[in-house]
Amino acid sequence: MPRFIDRDTRVVVQGITGSQGEFHTRLMKEYGTKIVAGVTPGRGGMEEVGIPVFDTIVEAKESHEIDASIIFVPAPYALDAALEAVEAELDPVVVITEGIPVRDSIQLVARAKLNGTTIVGPNTPGLIKAGESKMGIMPAQVFKKGDVGIISRSGTLFYEIAAHITRLGLGESTCVGLGGDPVVGLEFIDVLRWFEDDPETKAVALIGEIGGDAEERAAEFISGGEFTKPIAAYIAGRAAVPGKRMGHAGAIIQGSSGSAESKINALKKAGVSVGDLPGQVAEALRELL
């Protein structure tokens, strides 16, 4: 089962001294995330946003109890950073970095599976437990503590649908951005299994997009009766041209495989309410709850 976060999760930020690392560390800290250390090789002994910086995770762990890592390291070095976190037995490891070579992602996901580590991403907005802790780049103001879990391949739709859910007074529990790359650490089914057992999650919003077959496999999982809570979905990319990459590296369709129509039909057949517009997901959830 994946491992996610709560208000007690102690976090290290890898790449904390970069512009993105510093900026989002400040926002995560303001939200209440327990950031206890940062890591940037060659910058050990510094402080960033009031957080002590170390050269390695091993050194950081000598001084602090650390549970999880979030990575803002540039793509050429992100694999080494993520493997360092995995070897240090941190869990989850949230890889924000975009543009990591597919070969590196394959190596990372394979090593993480051997270690039993949850990788969120790469190329993810991160994850958030509303009202408690966030490890990511999502705008915190659109989330409110509630009982709807969100799983999304898209970043911007993740935020938009969360805002609709909040506006209707429902609120969110744990929200996970899977990442938009062809190879990522988590799939819809992994998170659905976790939500099925999570007492704080009463319903789920599933946000998919064209490319791959993860949504179709999630539909099979739901059809098999292994997920029993109310669920509503939105699939982005209905206007996409077959064979042309649209946005994310994983968002490419070949023939009928990976098309929006294929995903929508599979989910509807599984009994999932699929919205034509993002706002309709929140409306469907309000009716289902």
Q: What's the count of strands?
A: 14
Report how far apart the termini are. 26 Å
Number of helices: 9
Give the C-level CATH assignment of the largest domain.
Alpha Beta
**Element-by-element helix/strand order:** EHEEEHEHEHEEEEHEHEHEHEH
CATH architecture of the largest domain: 3-Layer(aba) Sandwich
- Major beta sheet, specifics? 7 strands, mixed
- Side by side, the strands of the main sheet go 3-4-2-1-5-6-7
Helix content: 25-40%
Q: How much strand? A: 15-25%
What is the average of the pLDDT values? 94
Total separate domains: 2
Uncertain parts: none
Going by CATH, what is the homologous superfamily of the largest domain? Succinyl-CoA synthetase domains
Structural class by sheet pairing and helices: alpha/beta
The CATH topology of the largest domain corresponds to Rossmann fold
What can you tell me about this protein's structure?
The chain is an alpha/beta fold. It contains nine helices and 14 strands. It has two domains: 10-120, 3-Layer(aba) Sandwich (Rossmann fold), CATH 3.40.50; 138-288, Rossmann fold. It has helices at residues 19-31, 57-63, 75-87, 102-115, 156-167, 188-197, 214-223, 260-269, 279-288, and strands at residues 10-14, 34-39, 47-48, 51-54, 68-71, 93-95, 119-120, 126-129, 133-136, 145-152, 172-177, 203-209, 231-236, 273-274. The strands form two sheets. A seven-stranded mixed beta sheet has the order 3-4-2-1-5-6-7, sandwiched between helices. Strand 1, helix 1 (19-31) and strand 2 form a beta-alpha-beta unit. The longest helix is centred in the middle third of the chain and has 14 residues, at 102-115.
